[in-house]
Design brief:
By secondary structure, the chain is of the alpha+beta class. The chain has 3 helices and 9 strands. Strand 6 and strand 7 form a beta hairpin.
Length: about 190
C-alpha cells in the first residue's frame, strides 16, 4: 500500500518531469512557439540633418562693406540673355591686397575659382528678398522679377544660382544687395539693355 508520503513524491516527480519536458521543448525549438525571448530589432539611430555651413565660417577674412555690384551680360541669345552679378567691396585695411591680391579703391571678394569666392560673395551680398537664397534681389524697370512666359519682356531668377538672371527684352535690370549688409557705396548695380 502506498503511503501519503509516497503519493506526494510521485506527484512531485511527475510535475518535475513535466517541467523538464516543457523546458526541453522550448529550448530546442520544438513546438510552434519561438525559442527564448522574442527578438526586438534595434531602433535605428536617427541620422542628423546637415546644418548648412554659415558663409562666414568658410570666408576668412570676411569682406568689408559693399562698394557696389557689377552686372554684365553672361550669355547673349538676342531677346533672351543671362545676366551675371558680382559684389565689389571697399578696400578697407588692405583687404583687396591681402585677401584677393588686387589693389585699388575696391575689388571683388575673391578671384574667380577661389574656394572661398562663393561664401565671400554671399556675405557681401546677403540674401535675396524674394527667394531667400544667397545673392541679389533682381529687378526689371524697378519691378520685381516674375514668372511670365518666354515672350514677355521682364526677368526671371535663375533656378540654380541667385547671382544669375534670365533677362528678356530691353529695359533696366538691377541687382540689389540685402538691406541687412553693410554698404560703403551703392546697394544696387544696374545694366541697361536696349
Amino acid at each position: 500500500m502506498l503511503r501519503l508520503h509516497d503519493v506526494r513524491s510521485i506527484r512531485v516527480a511527475w510535475v518535475l518531469t513535466g517541467i523538464a519536458a516543457l523546458a526541453l521543448t522550448c529550448s530546442c525549438g520544438g513546438g510552434s512557439s519561438p525559442s527564448g525571448p522574442p527578438t526586438v530589432a534595434p531602433t535605428p539611430t536617427p541620422v542628423p540633418t546637415a546644418t548648412p555651413t554659415p558663409p562666414e565660417s568658410v570666408c576668412n577674412p570676411t569682406p568689408p562693406p559693399l562698394y557696389g555690384i557689377r552686372v554684365k551680360v553672361h550669355q547673349d541669345s538676342g531677346f533672351r540673355k543671362i545676366l551675371d552679378s558680382r559684389p565689389l567691396v571697399v578696400n578697407m585695411n588692405g583687404y583687396c591686397e591681402s585677401a584677393v591680391g588686387l589693389s585699388g579703391a575696391f575689388c571683388v571678394t575673391r578671384r574667380e575659382g577661389d574656394d572661398q569666392a562663393w561664401a565671400c560673395d554671399y556675405l557681401a551680398m546677403g540674401q535675396a528678398l524674394d527667394t531667400g537664397r544667397w545673392g541679389p534681389t533682381w529687378y526689371w524697370n524697378g519691378l520685381p522679377c516674375t514668372s511670365e512666359g518666354d515672350t514677355t519682356p521682364g526677368c526671371r531668377n535663375d533656378p540654380n544660382n541667385q547671382f544669375l538672371l534670365i533677362a528678356k527684352g530691353p529695359g533696366t535690370y538691377a541687382a540689389c544687395a540685402s538691406p541687412t549688409v553693410a554698404v560703403g557705396g551703392d546697394r544696387c548695380g544696374e545694366l541697361v539693355i536696349d
